Amino acid sequence: MKLKYSLFTRRQFLNGLFGGWLGALMVSFLYPVIKFVFPPTREPDQVILPFLDFKDMKPNSVKVFSWGSKPGFVKKNKNGSYWAFVAVCTHLDCNVTYIPEQRKFFCACHDGWYDENGTNIGGPPPRPLRRLILIIEGEDLIIKREGVK
Amino acid sequence: MNLLGKKKRAQSWFDERFGISGIVKFLREKKIPQHKHSLWYYTGSAIMLFFVIQVITGFMLVFYYNPTLAEANKSVGRIMTEIPMGWIIRSIHSWSSSFMIAFVFIHLLSIWITKAYRKPRELTWMSGVFLLCVTLAFGFTGYLLPWDDLSLSATKVGTDIPRSIPIVGVWVTKLLRGGEDVTGDTLTRFFGFHVCILPVFIFILLAVHVYLIQKQGMSLPLAVESKKEKIQELPFWPNFVYRESVVWLILLGILFTVAIFLPPSLDKSADLMAPAPEGIRPEWYFLFLFQALKIFPAKILFINGDTFIVILILVEFLLFFFLPFLDNKPAEMKGKFITFLAYVTIVYAVVMTVWSLL
Amino acid sequence: MMWKMKRLLVFSLLIFLLFSFFLLKLNFAQEVMEEEQNKITQAEENAEKIVPSPKDIKESIGIYVFVVWMWIAIIVLIYILRLKIKEVDRLFYIRFFSAKKK
Questions:
Q1: Is the ipTM of this complex over 0.90?
Q2: B230 in a domain, yes or no?
Q3: Which end of chain A is more exposed for a tag (fewer CB within 10 A), N or C?
Q4: B197: domain CATH number?
């Protein structure tokens, strides 16, 4: 079907074209701004720590290490095995503490409780504490993100 | 059709509360005269463009900059190497400042030569002179912030100049430096000037300046005004704004191209105890002053050379500030002489600048 | 027509002036760079000067593409603006809006 008259006036067409190009140009200016303002903050794939520092830990205690910009806990269990957690509450990002007497992790911000396995047992936390993979290789303690080879 | 009706309703709702229609009506009726000196009308909006770019890139840089002795240079280095696009953003901020000041000079000289400060625009000129001072202060304080050898030396020299003013000079220097010497406190202080104090001043002055221009309309050059013909005028909206947009687009293109291909580098962190490096220079817009200080003898007529030149600069500045009142007979001999002085100033500044580069 | 030519001349002169002004600075920058190349041993000792440049080949290609794209967009926009200027000027000269008001 051929229309007898154009649906747009010349002015509307020009305005649309102008706005489109201007918008495209602005978007290409915006791209570096967004890249700058939101820099990529990647958490580390793995952290290697000297095992010597953790050898003498008492069972049922934790030691802090830095997991990127977050704190991490290396926990020595009663049976002498080591676990690693990201020591950040799953509720609203507060750092948690370990209370050895009660064998619980505690988040002071909103009264969140986790048991010694990191499972959320009381208060607002929706998920268990995040576990990290911990491997002891000779002198090194290697802590990895899950899913990293 | 229904949508259009809703848009109208929304518009009138806001208009009842804000009263925008008055401003819209004003802009619709605002006219820009067209004559052979109309080109200079575009310089003001060019300054505005660069100012807006300065504000935006400044906001971005302040996200990562640390104004402390230990961290300033490192944080600028981090912006340039680690943060994505950081070096481009810094380069745009640096180049845009140069462009802005260049256009401030062009704007000022064009007004001087076309005598746009004639009655009733004296206050517009004076607010403009203050704006010039604030703009140069922005440039001066911003130059220290990367905290490398060059910026430290330039700041030492620059903050020492006021010391030569009799009586108050010592205190001005102390105020600028935050103590006897340039230290980490100076850096923090300059940062405060650059991001807090000067912006407040520039926004107030800009509001006054722009308001006065809107209130009084565009000035006509003497030669055009005296012709008594009916002058062709164009509406500000949209005819003139479209023309301005063309200028803006070209300037934006030039700015970004230069900023991308000639980014400023960063020297190692300044050492407060190290001797001044060779070939220190302030930014190009202070070169004429720098050279004048260099060539002046140590003693003139029993006065200290520095004191002499600083007093000279102050007197010149006062004359400059009160120019609209001095130039009260623009069409006569005196007015012509003042216009001639503008050209002398241009030649002087260019010669001094080129000389200092040699 | 003469008037237009004149205007074009003034515009191009202004742009040239602007550019020559910055070319001066560019020359100066190059001189400094040459001086620095002479002192390259010293520079290597310090090796702390940061000269910014694109991080990798991807970024530098991206930058060239951006610059080319930006200038194309600017030229197209200016072309459209010229058409729009012609339109609004014509409307103004035939007193389109003031006639409508009455």
A1: no
A2: yes
A3: N
A4: 1.20.810.10
